[in-house]
Recover the amino acids of this structure.
C-alpha cells in the first residue's frame, strides 16, 4: 500500500516539474535582433555592452560602461593639420596614449545618449544605447567653445601675473590653460576672437611656456661648495634662481645626483628671495668634483591645482625643460691633533699618545693636517703622570715606583663647540725610578686598549656611516 502511494507521488512530482519547465520555456523572452546582429545607422552612434551576471553584483553598471566605450569607439578621432597632435603624429607611442585619453574623456563627458533596450538571461545582461550624431557634434562644438573661452581667460590672468613679476603663478596658469585644452589637441585651437596679446593659437601658448622656462637661470655659489663625507648634518648649498633679471620666487626644482657619490633632497623650492637651498643628506668618500642637476619641476608646480600629471607629461612632449648643474667638491675630513704629553710635569720626547691617535684617526675619509685653521675638527689631548698614592708601600716592599697616567681627550668642531670628552685615569707604570715608572705608563698596552675605546666613540662624532 505504501509502496504504491510512493510511486504515485513520484510520478505526480515529475509531471509537475515537466509542466513548470515547459511553461518557463514558453514564457522566456527571445533575445532581440541587436543581441545577435549589430545594427547599422548613418545618423546614430551605437553602443552595445554586455556583462556576465555570474558572481558579478555590479553587472548592470559594467554592461553600461562597456556600452558607452563601444559607443565612443565609433567616434573617429580625426587629426587636423593645424593641430598640436599633427606635429608629433609620427610618434606612435604618444599618439596611442593621447587617443586612449581622448576616448576615456569622451566616455566621462558624453551626454545625450538614449537607452534603446536591455536584455538579460540567467547568465548575461545586455544594454543598447544610441547617440544622435548631429546632437553629439553640436554639443561637442559648444563644449569646445566654452573650453576655449575658459582657457583664454586663464591666459589673460597669467599675463597679468607676468606683469607683476609673479612668474611662478603666471606659468602655473598657462599650464592650467594648456591642460583644459588637452582634449582638443587633435583639432585646431584658435584664440583670435579673444584678443589675447601675442597668443593667437595653441602653438603661441606652448611657445610662451617654453620661452618662460628657457628664461630661467641659476647663479651657483662663487666658490665651489666643499662637502665632507659621512657627516651627520650638512649645511645647505644656496643657489640664486632668476627669470630675466628678477628673482624666481616660490618655484620648485627637481634635484638629480649620483646616489653612489652624493645624495640630496629630491625636490627644493626657491624662497621669497629666489634662493634655492640644496641640502646634502649623504656624501661618500669619493673625492672628486661632482654635479647636482637641477631642473624646473612642472609636476610639483601643478601638484595643488586640478591638473593631472598626464596632462603635464603631454605638455612636456611639446617643450624642452632646461637643466642646470651645481658643482660640488668632495674632500676628506680634516683633523688637527694637538697633544701635550708630560711625565711628572716635564715634556716627553716620544709623543706616544699622538702617534696612536694619528694611526687610528687617519683613514680613507679622514686626513690629519698640520694647520689647525684648515681643520674641520680639532682633537686636544693632555697627558701627565703623577706619583700614585700607593707608591710608598710598593717602594718599601719591592723597591719599585708606581706612576699613574692621567689623560684627557676633547673633540671640538670648527665653531669650537666641544663634541666629546673622555678622561682616562686607570693606566699605570712601574719602574726602579718614578720617572721610569711614568715613562713605562706611556708604553702600557692597556693605554692602547683604553685609547681605542675612547677613539671609537670620538670617531662616531666625526663620521656617520
Amino acid at each position: 500500500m505504501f509502496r504504491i502511494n510512493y510511486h504515485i507521488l513520484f510520478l505526480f512530482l515529475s509531471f509537475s516539474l515537466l509542466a513548470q519547465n515547459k511553461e518557463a520555456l514558453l514564457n522566456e523572452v527571445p533575445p532581440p535582433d541587436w543581441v545577435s546582429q549589430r545594427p547599422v545607422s548613418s545618423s546614430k552612434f551605437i553602443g552595445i555592452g554586455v556583462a556576465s551576471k555570474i558572481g558579478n553584483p555590479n553587472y548592470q553598471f559594467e554592461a553600461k560602461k562597456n556600452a558607452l566605450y563601444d559607443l565612443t569607439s565609433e567616434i573617429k578621432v580625426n587629426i587636423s593639420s593645424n593641430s598640436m597632435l599633427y606635429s608629433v603624429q609620427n610618434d606612435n607611442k604618444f599618439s596611442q596614449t593621447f587617443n586612449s585619453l581622448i576616448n576615456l574623456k569622451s566616455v566621462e563627458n558624453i551626454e545625450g545618449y538614449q537607452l534603446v533596450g536591455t536584455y538579460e538571461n540567467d547568465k548575461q545582461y545586455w544594454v543598447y544605447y544610441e547617440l544622435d550624431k548631429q546632437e553629439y557634434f553640436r554639443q561637442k562644438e559648444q563644449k569646445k567653445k566654452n573650453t576655449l573661452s575658459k582657457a583664454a581667460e586663464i591666459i589673460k590672468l597669467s599675463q597679468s601675473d607676468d606683469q607683476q613679476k609673479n612668474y611662478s603663478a603666471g606659468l602655473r596658469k598657462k599650464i592650467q590653460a594648456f591642460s583644459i585644452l588637452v582634449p582638443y589637441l587633435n583639432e585646431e585651437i584658435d584664440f583670435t576672437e579673444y584678443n589675447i596679446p601675442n597668443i593667437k593659437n595653441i602653438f603661441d601658448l606652448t611657445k610662451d611656456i617654453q620661452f618662460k622656462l628657457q628664461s630661467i637661470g641659476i647663479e651657483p655659489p662663487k666658490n665651489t661648495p666643499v662637502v665632507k663625507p659621512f657627516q651627520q648634518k650638512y649645511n645647505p648649498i644656496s643657489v640664486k634662481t632668476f627669470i630675466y633679471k628678477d628673482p624666481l620666487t616660490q618655484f620648485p626644482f627637481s634635484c638629480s645626483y649620483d646616489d653612489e657619490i652624493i645624495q640630496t633632497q629630491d625636490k627644493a623650492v626657491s624662497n621669497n628671495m629666489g634662493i634655492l637651498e640644496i641640502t646634502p643628506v649623504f656624501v661618500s668618500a669619493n673625492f672628486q668634483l661632482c654635479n647636482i642637476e637641477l631642473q624646473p619641476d612642472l609636476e610639483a608646480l601643478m601638484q595643488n591645482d586640478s591638473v593631472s600629471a598626464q596632462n603635464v607629461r603631454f605638455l612636456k612632449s611639446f617643450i624642452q625643460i632646461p637643466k642646470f648643474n651645481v658643482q660640488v667638491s668632495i674632500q676628506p675630513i680634516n683633523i688637527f691633533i694637538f697633544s701635550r704629553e708630560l711625565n711628572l710635569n716635564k715634556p716627553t720626547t716620544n709623543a706616544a699618545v699622538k702617534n696612536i691617535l694619528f694611526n687610528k684617526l687617519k683613514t680613507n675619509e679622514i686626513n690629519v693636517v698640520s694647520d689647525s685653521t684648515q681643520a674641520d675638527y680639532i682633537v686636544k689631548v693632555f697627558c701627565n703622570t703623577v706619583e700614585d698614592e700607593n707608591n710608598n708601600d710598593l717602594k718599601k716592599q719591592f723597591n719599585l715606583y708606581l706612576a699613574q697616567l692621567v689623560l684627557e681627550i676633547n673633540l671640538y668642531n670648527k665653531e669650537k663647540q666641544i663634541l666629546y670628552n673622555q678622561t682616562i685615569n686607570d693606566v699605570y707604570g712601574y719602574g726602579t725610578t718614578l720617572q721610569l715608572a711614568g715613562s713605562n705608563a706611556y708604553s702600557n698596552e692597556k693605554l692602547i686598549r683604553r685609547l681605542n675605546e675612547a677613539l671609537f666613540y670620538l670617531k662616531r662624532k666625526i663620521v656617520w656611516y
